[in-house]
Protein 1
Amino acid sequence: MSPSLESLFDFTRFQSISADANYTPQVAACAEWLKSRFLAMGLEAKAYPTAGHPVVLARNVPRADRRTVLIYGHYDVQPADPLNEWTTPPFEPRVENGMIYARGIADNKGQIMAHILGVEKALAEKGDLPVNVIFLVEGEEEIGSGHLEAFLKEHREALNPHVIVISDTSMVAPGVPSLDYGLRGVLAMEVRLHGAATDLHSGSYGGIAPNPAMLLARLLATLHDEQFRVAVPGFYDAVIPVQDWERKEWAQLPMSGEEDYKNEIRSPSLFGEAGYTPLERLWARPTAEVNGIGGGYQGLGSKTVIPREAFAKLTFRLVPNQTPEEIEEKVIAHLKRHCPPEVRLEISPGHGGAPFLCDPKGANSLAAGRAAMRTWGQDLALIRGGGSIPILQTFQRILGVDILLIGLAWPGCCAHAPNENFPVESFETGIRFNQALLEELAAG
Ligand code: BES
Ligand code: MN
């Protein structure tokens, strides 16, 4: 195995699951490993403790006559469940048919490692870099980056980049370099309905006891209308419509139709808001989703019981100019109004991240386009993405510079899902792209 793949595999073996406190030691160990990896390639590096998981910062010695490029990524990963749907264990990376399989390999370890190794290669080949480079690799992206804003405020002067580069998105099609000029935001919350004080025999009490599971189904059904539009009053008030130039640009993309997406997700049908194409629904329209639902008996066979409570984990994907605060208020008011009176409603607010949109035609994007041309022989496709990187708008607000989102993962990478994958080719191309990109960005 090549030394670069070996480094990536070592990185990927850490079970750096940020959401689950049982894994906190592994998250910390991953941060330490990363810091050592940076030190070994001759950068200054430190793992900063935060109120949550550590932030790893690494840089070469800055020079005033060079531009500063901040490369952001995350070393935390999503939980690997459901484990039995993985072909091989999620934290034992392996290559099959040119694809690497492991939890976090696409999101985001393979992508950030390509940048790290690009810098290492440039240092080895040329002894120096064309820019001041800062790596900021955090451990809480998958849980909303709750402590990164405070860190950025504290270190703003030391960071002070000219441009931010992030590879934590997907190409629009395999091998088609893509610039994401917009991402959706996200708002999470948990809803719990409480009925009787204890679980009850459904024969002794069925017909008189409120059933929170059943009433939860009703409540959740009020979130959408018959057209699968979100039925929360005012939900769409701030939504910016898709621009004409975007419609034209998107129509030419290699991956845009219903059939493409049915194949990608291997589902007989698609779903969503009436009146919009799949790309519009993914990139420019907000959603309300149930991510998990529970209550009552979950084991084998049947059990005649009325559960005392039921819960649902919800997220809302947001688009410009919706804000998590505004939507949270509207959703809570809606849930309160529609909650059946027979049960008590409990809402636990979760993380939130604002949507992101930028001008994809500035000087830094053009430089990135030249680097793409040198690396892939084609310019960047201009796309948006459906996922969220919660810290983006905070970067814009605190650091105030362009953000270039250039993804190296492929569609169908199974991020957050079993058998997550990342192509060896993309990893190797990413290493070369990083070198070209830093050279192009050096010029301004
Ligand atoms: N890499 C993704 C963001 C992403 C996914 C961008 C797909 C474009 C397309 C990131 O790591 C992620 O998964 N973010 C979470 C954030 C949330 C947990 C706060 C997301 O989008 O669910
Ligand atoms: Mn992710």
Protein 2
Amino acid sequence: MTDTTIASILARRVWDSRGRPTVEAEVRLGGGARGRAIAPAGASRGTHEAIDLRDGGAALGGMDVTLALGNVNGPIAARLQGMDATDQSRVDAELIALDNTANKARLGGNATIAVSMAILHAVAMANDMPLYAWLAAGNPVRLPLPEIQIFGGGAHAGRRVDIQDFMVIATGARTFAEALTMTAEVYRAAGQAMSDAGKLQGVADEGGFWPVFDSNEEALGMLTRAIEKAGYRPGEDMAISLDIAASEFGRDGRYTLGLDRRELDRDGMIAMLLDWCGRYPIVSIEDPLAEDDREGMRAFTAAIGGRIQIIGDDYLVTSAGRVDAAASDRACNAVLIKPNQAGTVTETRAALDAGQRAGFGTIVSARSGETEDVTIVHLATGWNAGQLKVGSFARSERMAKWNEALRVEEALGPDAVFAGRAALAVNPW
Ligand code: PGA
Ligand code: ZN
């Protein structure tokens, strides 16, 4: 048995897909195994998620991470060296105790998540197992159903449109590889349609086409036509998934749609979304109401939670406690799982477990600021989450994840099980 004692932990500054600094942690175990992981960064962040520790000041727009790096190389390394890396929950408990805040404000969630995930990688290597297999611990695994962005908006596109993600889900796909092929056809068709309309102006932060639309709803029409142009039946082979990210433009039950020049109250916002659900092949909506609008989330879920998946992202911030509360509240029926919202692997897993206990759909997700790090693909597969959200079908920080899942599917061979549309919290089929 190889020595899995933590021998050293080192942090270095690397750069994310927006050209901003971020934290990479590298862990070495006594037996020589190594693990490495990079913290991602969100733009439309929930108020209650773990804090990224940034230096502030003038340099790099205040985004530098030397304080977070110092926390890894100093107190975190000192505290964790000599511990057995195999006991992830004990290691993470030490990180939580050392930080001793509700939101990782002292050490930085960017420092803690990089270390926590690097330890996971090192242990998998020490056991000579791919990470997904190590995480599965002998339990069945499924390749996740991908939701893939076609148009980017909101905080990822200079607020050119209010809605953040216009995505598709290949509900007719029988394998992960087929889901990607189908999505590639829709992405191409959407690009062609944008070009034909004189609207092709590059891509947003997650690789979806820049949303040169005159209204939020115009994007829904264009997306539905792209599905048809690609040769798929909307709502059958290929369906629409939205991330409204309503916390970005809603507060105290009031919602301001800048593009549509409309201010809606809670009921108006719900009515607009229900109308869209009636006219477009939508199977999933994330953060339909703002993070402070519990009443709105409950009303929306009561109205349509029996027919579509309703995901809490900013609303739940990968917190097991919030998932439990939302389940008893019936405020949504699915949870987005972003490791850096929680700050450690153990807390991330706890939020996923809470979701699965509640019968929620569970979607492991990337952030808008990403890197070549592919850890989330292994979490989604090894933990049998069922769904994966990574952004669009362009830019290598996105493609690295999709391509890694293809390798996993191939490695599993005939044993590979694709979660498919059954992974959605609600199945209209
Ligand atoms: P973020 O966006 O990474 O900018 O928070 C992703 C999301 O809202 O799902
Ligand atoms: Zn979101």
